[in-house]
Write a structure and sequence with these properties.
Chain lengths: 244, 304
């Protein structure tokens, strides 16, 4: 019973009750990724719709982690929920996993909409689809670890929300995730490679057939995504403050 | 049964900084409500957070129900629950959702949790508000909800860290009534800086000051430590002032239209007799917790 109940608690508190009691938040989760998609589609006369849909997925997954950072900090600092949970049988990993799961459920309206659009406008093999899903999972894991790490240090909600918005913009809006990286001229392209979402986007675009990547770059992109995710997991386990 | 034991418990937040807790040692047996009093910054919350397994001590040891707060934290968390200082219910949830979700965090199955949530909301008189958004509840209702939430866990040690701060006097008294009822079945570790609250509720009181435990005992036990455990009050008059000046060595305090002196039991009885013989009204009573608190935080100097 233990873990299921605790995961259910996280999903209820961080996703279901909010939507149940304030249905307006449902709209909010859909609008952000779709607004950029619409913009890209109009600007490119429809040519980049597939790339834009993939970018919407990446933005949704990365934003989920950033939202986790803000939500956890809010629940911890303003309602002392984390203090109550630390003193309960729920462990740090279950709390983090449950809250992250809640963010995915929170983002479901956007993900369902993007999935429908993906079926309509993107053609890829099953293997490529699997690769794309793995990329999304890695981006999600990376973002929730960043989110959890920062939330345990945050003591101020205004700072926390600002930080969350800043990271979302830096990593999911400015980098070339809604369009191919080849649209960025050198030497600015090197700056784009500072963001892990750039690697996720170029791998995705490669899977969708929108971007031809040389094999060494494919390997390097996977190494960056997996390596960074693992590094952040270790860092989070060592540095995050659960029991202070 | 010994509920809480601390041995040389210390906590320093930053190296070189002042100790938040300084070699705190005490033990408390099952007593209904243990009241920990102290000024702001005395170390009350630090102590509670260590005992509730939220914070690691810098040195020393502590046990709750015989379980070490560091080594046995996992097992201990089954037996304790806490309403932290400044905790409040999440505004977009309802009382039923608040209690239910907390019980799920504590391992209970959904059906059991739902039934128990309703039972405990009824216990604190919130059954009629079970589906109202928390943001619409009054301050007193929110505090009751937080208590119902941890009570529903049926943990046998409950920490309440300054639960009545900010409540109006009437709501506070209602809250006290609730605590008096629930302490029949639970051990409550209550921190407060309202002395009248500790006096009203706690059967054992701890006085914490600047990170040091200055005394732990019942109110009567704490009084016994004092040199002057009794207080004599009388209306201000020339005769009364003269009697006090002739017979009392301690300071005579002017409190509004009254005079007050702190004294020994024998001296208090003798003084009362003198006032009675001269047809002067006099009140004799044991010193209040405020007097005791001031004595302990001033290391026996000052007022007493």
């Amino acid at each position: 019973m233990t873990r299921q109940s605790q995961l259910l608690a996280a999903v209820l508190v961080n996703a279901v009750y909010e939507k149940q009691n304030y249905p307006i938040v449902l709209l909010n989760t859909v609008i952000s990724p779709l607004s950029f998609l619409l913009l890209i589609v109009f600007v490119s006369n429809g040519a980049l719709i597939g790339v834009g849909i993939m970018g919407g997925f990446i933005m949704s997954m990365f934003s989920a982690g950033m939202a986790l950072q803000a939500d956890l900090a809010h629940l911890k600092n303003d309602f002392k929920l984390q203090d109550m949970i630390v003193s309960s049988p729920t462990s740090q990993s279950i709390y983090m996993f449950g809250m992250a799961l809640a963010e995915i459920i929170y983002a479901l309206p956007a993900l369902v909409t993007l999935t429908i659009l993906g079926f309509l406008f993107i053609q890829m093999t099953l293997l490529a689809a699997l690769g794309f899903i793995i990329v999304l999972v890695l981006i999600f894991l990376m973002s929730i670890v960043i989110g959890f790490l920062f939330s345990t240090f945050s003591s101020d909600i205004v700072q926390s929300f600002s930080f969350s918005r800043l990271l979302s913009t830096l990593f999911s809006t400015i980098p070339p995730i809604y369009y191919p990286i080849t649209y960025i001229p050198f030497p600015y392209r090197y700056i784009a490679y500072l963001s892990p979402t750039t690697y996720a986007a170029q791998l995705s675009q490669n899977f969708g057939g929108y971007l031809e990547l040389p094999v060494p770059m494919i390997i390097f992109s996977w190494v960056v995504l997996i390596g960074l995710t693992l590094f952040l997991f270790v860092l989070s386990a060592k540095r995050s403050k659960w029991r202070e | 049964m010994t509920r809480v034991v601390c041995e040389n418990l210390s906590k320093t937040y930053k190296e070189g900084a002042e100790k938040a807790l300084d070699a705190v040692s005490f033990s408390v047996s099952d007593c209904g409500i243990f009241g920990l009093i102290g000024r702001n910054g005395a170390g009350k919350t630090t102590l509670v957070r260590i005992l509730a397994t939220e914070l690691l001590p810098s040195s020393g040891s502590a046990w709750i129900n015989g379980l070490d707060v560091v080594q046995d934290a996992k097992a201990l968390r089954q037996e304790i629950a806490i309403v932290p200082q400044e905790a409040r219910p999440i505004p977009w949830m309802t009382p039923r959702q608040t209690v239910l979700s907390y019980l799920l965090w504590r391992d209970l199955g959904y059906r059991v949790a739902k039934a128990r949530a309703d039972d405990y909301l009824a216990l604190v008189g919130l059954e009629g508000k079970a589906n109202t958004l928390n943001r619409l509840l009054s301050g007193g209702m929110k505090r009751k909800l937080m208590v119902a939430t941890v009570l529903a866990s049926e943990a046998n040690v409950i920490f309440l860290d300054e639960p009545t701060t900010g409540l109006d006097p009437l709501s506070r008294r209602e809250f006290w009534k609730l605590l008096k009822e629930i302490c029949q079945d639970h051990f409550i570790f209550l921190t407060t800086h309202y002395l009248e609250e500790a006096e009203e509720l706690a059967s054992v009181i701890g006085i914490l000051d600047q990170g040091r435990m200055k005394g732990v005992d019942s109110l009567d036990g704490l009084r016994r430590v004092l040199k002057y455990p009794y207080s004599i009050r009388c209306d201000t008059s020339v005769i009364a002032e003269r009697i006090l000046q002739e017979r009392v060595s301690g300071e005579i305090l002017h409190r509004g239209s009254q005079l007050r002196v702190l004294t020994t039991e024998d001296e208090a009885l003798a003084l009362a007799q003198v006032f009675h013989d001269r047809h002067q009204k006099v009140w004799m009573e044991p010193v209040s917790l405020e007097d005791i608190f001031l004595h302990f935080v001033h290391d026996g100097e000052g007022l007493l």
